[in-house]
């Protein structure tokens, strides 16, 4: 597989000797993972060039939590990863939303972006809002995190957001070149050693919450050790299936059953024995036009487990990849086998014009046109989305801005809307994080985009901006749910920020038990009478204004119906003649059963039921007489040790009064010194560099629990811990 951009120009065979030399030298020089222990800034790459040396990271000591691979068999065997300070932070806490479909071909995406572990390695996030992200989860079934380290463990941000969208996540076990052959010689020395290393990999996946492994053996194997290699694959599959039901082990088409490194490009007698031992095979991406059909014939009733590789960089890939990737996808769809899209980060790495967000949406639209939507969500209630893409320029809560600093944390992605991308002419929708351009409807223009403006929740929103003349309206697809509804009422709410003449509603599409369709418009105002024949109307029953946002809410009973579509509906009320300009921001959408809405009031445990502890406290000198506080916070519910909520907001409030320290209580009223530190998806947070002035006597840390339905505990009611700084220095 691709190691770097050199492979865009040279074949594997040409690079073998270069790689052997490179890995020999690098292994001699590097003895551990060379990472800075501070959170990276957008200009780190430049600043780092002035540094004479970068300290090696001692993984047993507290530092900013990171994700990292395992680079040696000894570290894998010793289980030293579990003793790392960082292990606790790398656990994914979002359960997988659904199992892999067995009735259709699937789409696997292998991320391989700049060697892996870039901005995504910072578990608690970083400040590079221009980091690489994926938000087209509705177009894939499996996501593989890839690097050229021996054991590539997916950073939890990818597992969290992929699981939220129903996508399975695999790590990568890779051996390659001369070093890989030596590694395999040790690993496959005996049947027992092969089983032991397989068990270590299964333990990692189960403990960290991801769904399996891609096995990539890209080096020659001694013929007498091939049986042990097959035992390794077989045992890993069996053990992982027992510990993590629904897990996957996928074999990469590389070494053959004779131990030769010869990519076959299709399923045949030389690689099928490995395919028979696991859950699938990822075929190398240099296949010929006839190979998908041949592979399907060999696989028989397991043809969906054959993932034909497509290299987006286009290196020897059928159809050329890049902007003609749909050529290969169309062929695979025609022959009813699965697709493996390798390195979609090509759009980001090669800086495709006009900007990453527009190019990303355009490129993935090729996948959608060829393959169609493979994920439908929501499928269960409660449903909540604030359109957060996992990066942004601010963080808000209920319309109030908590932070105006840029940030990047893919774990924070909420369910992503299925916005359509169309280029040129009419009905054009594009989505980027900064500015989006043009949709035309009945001669009118509507822009749809997410901006730097403050959000209702998190760091995202959808902005509708354009012109609506007369009775013209505008619709945009948001979600494709598959929600089977009962006789219990559902409550629909959404937040809007707009001027008095721009109205925004939700158009809900339903299917009845007899497969009849109907549309219901949930809206704050009556639309024009000429639209009455198009859909039923349900006016909102309550409105609440919060920080310039209006939250609309209504209830519906749709017994036996299935909710199949959620769209935005932009319109003006009758007699709106002041201006044709239209501007409206959609901040969030929430759908809950009535019983769930009632439970909201008691679903988040009170502060008295929580225990917060501070560990590894350090107070070191800073600049201009200030000091820097470092501390690990951990929390739990007193009587529910394993209870973990999906999100926690963490704040710090600097205390200057000794009276507060004596009482061990935080002042009842909010203080101006309270600052938002970040978000955690595990019950722990490491404060790595909190600057405190010399007159600060203590710091109160507040942990705000948040529910999966978008609910949250009031900050002033949230559990807190007061850390006394006196006597620490």
TrEMBL record:
Compartment(s) of residence: Cytoplasm, Cytosol
Top-level taxon of the source organism: Eukaryota
Family matches, as InterPro entries: ENGase, ENGase_C, TIM_ENGase
Domain Cytosolic endo-beta-N-acetylglucosaminidase TIM barrel: start-end pairs: 118-394
Catalysed reactions, as listed in the record: an N(4)-(oligosaccharide-(1->3)-[oligosaccharide-(1->6)]-beta-D-Man-(1->4)-beta-D-GlcNAc-(1->4)-alpha-D-GlcNAc)-L-asparaginyl-[protein] + H2O = an oligosaccharide-(1->3)-[oligosaccharide-(1->6)]-beta-D-Man-(1->4)-D-GlcNAc + N(4)-(N-acetyl-beta-D-glucosaminyl)-L-asparaginyl-[protein]
Domain Cytosolic endo-beta-N-acetylglucosaminidase C-terminal: 603-725
Name of the top EC class for this enzyme: hydrolase
UniProt keywords, alphabetically: Cytoplasm, Glycosidase, Hydrolase
UniProt main location, coarse: cytoplasm
E.C. code: 3.2.1.96
Family per record: Belongs to the glycosyl hydrolase 85 family.
Protein name: mannosyl-glycoprotein endo-beta-N-acetylglucosaminidase
Source organism (scientific name): Brassica rapa subsp. trilocularis
